Amino acid sequence: MRPLVQKIKPSRGFSHALYLLLNMLLPLTVFMLVRTGFVSVAIGVILLSKWRMFAVRPRFWLANIRTNAVDLIIGLSVLALMDGTQTNWLQLLYAFLWILWLIFIKPRNDVLWVSLQALSAQAVGLTAVFSAFDHQPLMVLVLAVGFICFFCAHHFFYSFDEEHIRALAYIWAYFGAALTWILGHWLIYYYHVIAQPTLLLFTLAFSLGTLYYLDHFDKLSKSIRRQVIFILITIISVIVVFSDWGDKIV
């Protein structure tokens, strides 16, 4: 079922300027709230910014939530990353990247950009989860990763009009949750930022997504398939072999 909420994207004139201003205002407002210690209020502001999801009959709410989930993942993840650091310039950088997302990435709806939206949301979302909730019980991490993987996979396959969207999204969510359950016992961080499950899931998502994208448009040759698979296996092998398996930040 396609959602009833439509994106408002004025292309010029006063409406376009107002659109840009409102998109810049949200990240800057969240930045100021985080700096002043009102993190709970910042969460409320982000959720209120998506009020249009519920401005329809309740039977359409679930579809609208799935459609807007990627945007919510980005917003809440940026908030978590902002709250996880006291460095002013880094918080501003997060706000600036969020503005770029809202203005240049989120409005695009062709297949390539929607695929990049899904990949970006998964990368940012998982980074935030393992940065902000690394001291939470393992089950919390498993559930959070599962939800993020499901909504990002659903967003990715939706743009292709895939017949088995929900099944594929559930499979990817289960895989991400299972991988987190296993690696959560030896949680390794690279440069104190990127957790090993985040890096592995990003590598797998990018490689498998590339294969799916090329195959969908009949551009996937045997040579390209071999190259992508070889690069994927090489990267995973390097990560696994050269990691210090023992609750350690590297």
Describe the structure in brief.
By secondary structure, this protein is an all-alpha fold. It contains 9 helices and 2 strands; from the N terminus they run αααααααββαα. It folds into 2 domains: 107 residues, no CATH class; 142 residues, no CATH class.
Number of helical regions: 9
Strand content is under 5%
What oligomeric arrangement do these chains adopt? single chain
Backbone CA Rg: 19 Å
Q: Biggest sheet, strands in spatial order?
A: 1-2
- How many beta strands in the DSSP annotation? 2
Q: How would you classify the helix and strand content by structural class?
A: mainly alpha
Rough shape? globular
SSE order: HHHHHHHEEHH
Task: Give the helix level as a range of percent.
Answer: over 70%
